[in-house]
Amino acid sequence: MPSRLPQHAINAAYGSYLACTGCIRALFHAEFRRSYHGPILWILLSTLAIAIAAHVMVFPVRVFLWLVGLTSLKDGLSNALHRSIAAVPFLCVAASRYLYPALFERLFMMGVAIRSPSLASTLAKIHVDYFTWEYALSVVQFTLYRVVLMLILGTGSLVFTPFFGGLFAVVTFSFKVRRMEVVFALSLLVLYLVSRTRSTALELVRLWFDARAIARELFTPFVDRLPALKAQAISNRDSHQICT
Questions:
Q1: Helix, strand or coil, per DSSP, at residue 44
Q2: Is 194 exposed, middle or buried (0-12, 13-18, 19+ CB in 10 A)?
């Protein structure tokens, strides 16, 4: 494990570099920019509408808790609400994949073509069915996981202490990244143990979970084609060996 940590760190740094340069290229690519304006606006407006509706529904409860003096319960409810709203962008991305599958596909292919036109041409020839039960179940599973996580965080913070309530999220995160980056998990645990940086550690955990889920949706057009792409590479290699 220790010998693999440097390679993981290099991969993480290289992946961050590719993500940043890819975003910059997308911003300056005129056709690409025109294509994603609509989906991004829809996601932002949907998130804003859901956030406003959630705050309106919870506001009377918060006022009641404030009047009776249960400020700790009011703060816990506010934190749970904010963390729940943070999952809305992922759900909007998942919904846009079903509502606009052609747009989702075109955006991905345009992004790949900026870097490698030949790879984009190869991927475009492989058919992918987006309407699968496996994908629908993954969205439901993520939603249920978020609900359970919020319930555990809220219960732990109110019944026990805020420390043990948030510790569940950090432990879950550490388990998820145990094969990826142990140093990152340990650093996050240290941040959580310090009271002044505890909220920052929880925010990093939430951002990582949401970013991981959204990245999976964005890279689905490539991930779903990997089996066919590998089979095609093996077939070409076997044909080359036969010819030689």
A1: helix
A2: exposed
Q: What is the pTM of this model?
A: 0.54
Give me the numbers of helices (H) and strands (E) for the chain, helices first please: 12, 0
Using a CB cutoff of 8 Å and minimum separation of 24, what contacts does 190-194 make?
A: 192/166, 192/167
**pLDDT for res 244:** 45
Q: Are 111 and 22 contacting, i.e. CB atoms less than 8 angstroms apart? A: yes
Rounded Cα distance between 73 and 164, Å, is 16
> Which amino acid is located at 234 in the chain?
I
**DSSP letter, residue 4:** G
C-alpha span between 60 and 48 (Å, rounded): 20
Question: CA geometry: angle at 219 spanning 181 and 94, to 5°?
Answer: 110
Half-sphere exposure of 133 (CA within 13 A, CB side): 0
Contact 191, 198 (CB under 8 A): yes
User: Consecutive 10-residue runs of the chain (244 residues): their mean pLDDT?
Assistant: 58 74 76 72 76 75 70 65 68 71 74 79 77 73 72 60 62 64 71 77 74 71 73 56 42
Q: Is 169 in contact with 202 (CB distance < 8 Å)?
A: yes
Q: DSSP string of 141-183?
A: HHHHHHHHHHHHHHHIIIII-HHHHHHHHHHHHHHHTTTT-HH
- Asked whether 130 and 101 are in contact (CB, 8 A), the reply is yes
